[in-house]
Design brief:
Blueprint: H1 7-41, H2 45-69, H3 86-116, H4 120-150, H5 155-185, H6 202-213
Length: 214
């Protein structure tokens, strides 16, 4: 058995190891986090909805990055020759953690409002109003932190910064504001199964509305 040691062979080993491991690591992350969210909220359907709103935006981010840094993208006239393989390896888990963090924070408030006696749709709406300013500010600050990478002259740093900035802003301004509430609003009365929720209380809704307006 012959062994070849060269810069190219070592680089190829790095590539095969990293790219080959990434799907297993991503699958393991979902296998661990999904039951945790499901057990904490005692909800099956809502957990699957939150999982869907985590996976889809990540695919959108990498699709945009592949188009932008590939042939025909806005950077086609630069030195970029496509999205570097290490960018998804280095950013996918961070985007997953960020999206899951925002989703759990938002759905946690929805769960609390519904448990307090609000109707399903009112809980979704009030949860968005209650968490919106915090998540938006946190997302913008996080995106500004990675703006330095995006403005770097190193192509690899630019790609990593682009993926992170686009991913954070997409998750903050689109996913959390539109996609997650829309997903939770479809079949809203099934979000809590198998847990049981109290019947909606109009007086609680009125008091909650007055509290949010102050």
């Amino acid at each position: 058995k012959a062994w070849e040691f060269s810069a190219t062979s070592v680089y190829l080993d790095y590539f095969n190891a990293a790219v080959g491991t990434m799907p297993r690591v991503g699958g393991l992350a979902f296998v661990i986090t999904t039951p945790c969210v499901m057990l904490y909220f005692c909800s099956l359907l809502a957990t699957l909805k939150l999982l869907l709103t985590v996976i889809l935006p990540i695919t959108w981010v990498y699709g945009i990055a592949i188009w932008y840094f590939g042939d025909g993208g806005l950077s086609a006239d630069s030195d970029s020759v496509g999205l570097h393989w290490s960018v998804p390896c280095g950013s996918s888990m961070m985007l997953l953690a960020l999206a899951l963090d925002y989703n759990v924070f938002y759905f946690g408030r929805v769960y609390e409002f519904r448990k307090a006696g609000l109707s399903d749709l009112e809980a979704v709406r009030h949860g968005l109003a209650a968490t919106g300013p915090v998540i938006t500010c946190a997302g913008i600050i996080f995106a500004l932190e990675f703006l330095g990478l995006l403005l770097s002259k190193a192509p690899l740093n630019q790609q990593l910064g682009f993926v992170m900035v686009v991913g954070v802003l997409l998750d903050t301004l689109v996913v959390r504001s539109c996609l997650v509430p829309a997903a939770l609003s479809i079949g809203a009365n099934w979000n809590w199964w198998p847990a049981t929720m109290p019947d909606p209380d109009l007086e609680v809704e009125r008091l909650t509305m007055e509290k949010l307006q102050k």
